[in-house]
Structure formats: C-alpha cells, structure tokens
C-alpha cells in the first residue's frame, strides 16, 4: 500500500492493517530491510498453549458511555488504569521493581467502544516512521509530539514457549538480533506465569524499537480479551516530534530499578539458566549512564511482590 506523507512518497509497512500508515524513510543509502510478516496483534507460535485471540476474560455490564469505578466490575476488580483521556494514571513502579498489570474492558463488555478503559485495543493512532540510524541499524521515531503517559504501540509477535524461546536464542548467529521479550508475572501465591513474545518472523512496528539505557518508553502487560497479555509501550515523558523511540530491554525505566535485577533467588536462578551460553552485545545507545552491553535476558516483571 503506497501512501503520501507530506512531500515524500513512502510505503505503508502494515499494508493497511493499522489505523494509520507505518512509514519507512526513503533514502539512497539504507541497510537491507528485514523480511517479516506484519501483524498488529500477537499470534500463537510453537509451544503456545492458549490462542492469543481467544476471548477468555469476563466482561462488565455497564450501560454508560464510559465505565466508572462505582459500577464497573472491570474497574472494581482490577483498578482504574487510565484517566478520561486514555492517559495512563500510574507511571511508577513499586519499590520491589514490579509493575502492575493493566486490564481493559473487552469484547464481552457492554460499554461503548469509546470507553476510557479501552486504549491499547484501539491500536496504533500515532504517526511513526522507521528510519536508518547512524550506528544501530533500523530504528523507530515519532512524527508528532507524544505527551507523557500516552500509549504508543504494542510489541507484538509470536507467542512461544520457553523451550522454543531458548532454542531460538541458542541457534542465533552473532550478527542476528534477539527480539524475544519475556514477561514473568507473580500471582502473589508463589505461582509464576511466563509469556514469551518474538516478533522476528511475525511482528509489528514495535520490533524496530531500539534499546536505550535512558529510554523514553516503558513496557506494561495489558490484558484485553485474552489471558495472554499484550506488551504495550507507553511514553515515560513528553516526547518531541522526530525523536527516536526507545525502551530498556531489561524492563527498567529512568531511575526505576531495571527488571533484570530480579528480586528473589529463584528469579536469579531462572535468569542464569536463560542467559547461559548467550553472547553479550555492545550497547550503542549513547546515554550518560550506558551499561555498555545490551541485556541478555530481555524481560519485564509484573504482579505482586513475591516476597
């Protein structure tokens, strides 16, 4: 699908699957563009036991234009995540380094599609552009200003098992990128739910986000229709137009503790088993407090503090 953006001719990478075109910078000297299948949503991959598109969460019976905490079963059960404009309310992380998962109203809810508790499910609304960076391959930037707390895009791809994620990591060549993100959620009762998403072969615009040790985005697991979380990226500060969009692959943000600093001995053991045999790659983010290396275990933690 060809689109015209201002004075330049571009191609919509999403082929019309997104609400707005996903543009690619046209230049005479750019690296080879990766081949992959575009999908705005997660799909089931090898080892996935739950169909990400299957509706498995209950809905509310609200008859209002937008749900309110006094009467909505979704908000009463999971809490209010957004204000009336769809901006994320809680942009902090607990002292334990764990973020709280977000639950939106879903297809079984009787509220309207414009309910303020429907944000991530509406999909991409911002004008984003994929472009060639100076020393980090392809990157993603915004063509418009983004206020703090705004939903930017998902990190969508194949939902795979731990065994498949491990197999893919160990078979990667040194020059290949590792796109796999792991979400580890503690239920507070000692149980841990893990979700692995890989956008390398099937994915969306989120696969072009580069790592930064001082990012402007942060990731939260958001559940809509399914128990399988969507990995949503929100603005962690006001972002200027034409600024590159980045997030911390280890799950940290700004002065918040990075998620790769896992909180329990069992977490540390899991991390060690995951990263055994993997090679570290240099970080080129240019931040003043750069750690010099990309995280080996790309993961975020969610849920209650397991301690």
Word description of this protein:
The chain has 307 residues and is mainly beta. The protein has helices spanning 73-78, 162-170, 265-275, and strands at residues 2-5, 8-11, 23-24, 37-38, 43-44, 102-103, 128-132, 138-142, 151-154, 157-160, 181-186, 192-203, 210-211, 217-223, 230-235, 246-247, 299-303. A hairpin with a 5-residue loop joins strand 11 and strand 12. Mean pLDDT is 82; it is low at 255-273.
Helix count, per DSSP? 3
- Unreliably modeled segments: 255-273
What is the molecular shape? globular
Number of strands: 17
Search tags:
mainly beta, globular, four-stranded mixed beta sheet, six-stranded mixed beta sheet, 17 strands, 24% strand, 307 residues, 3 helices
List the helices and strands and how they pair.
Blueprint: E1 2-5, E2 8-11, E3 23-24, E4 37-38, E5 43-44, H1 73-78, E6 102-103, E7 128-132, E8 138-142, E9 151-154, E10 157-160, H2 162-170, E11 181-186, E12 192-203, E13 210-211, E14 217-223, E15 230-235, E16 246-247, H3 265-275, E17 299-303
Parallel strand pairs: 3-7, 4-12, 5-10, 6-14, 11-17, 13-16
Antiparallel strand pairs: 1-2, 7-8, 9-15, 10-12, 11-12, 14-15
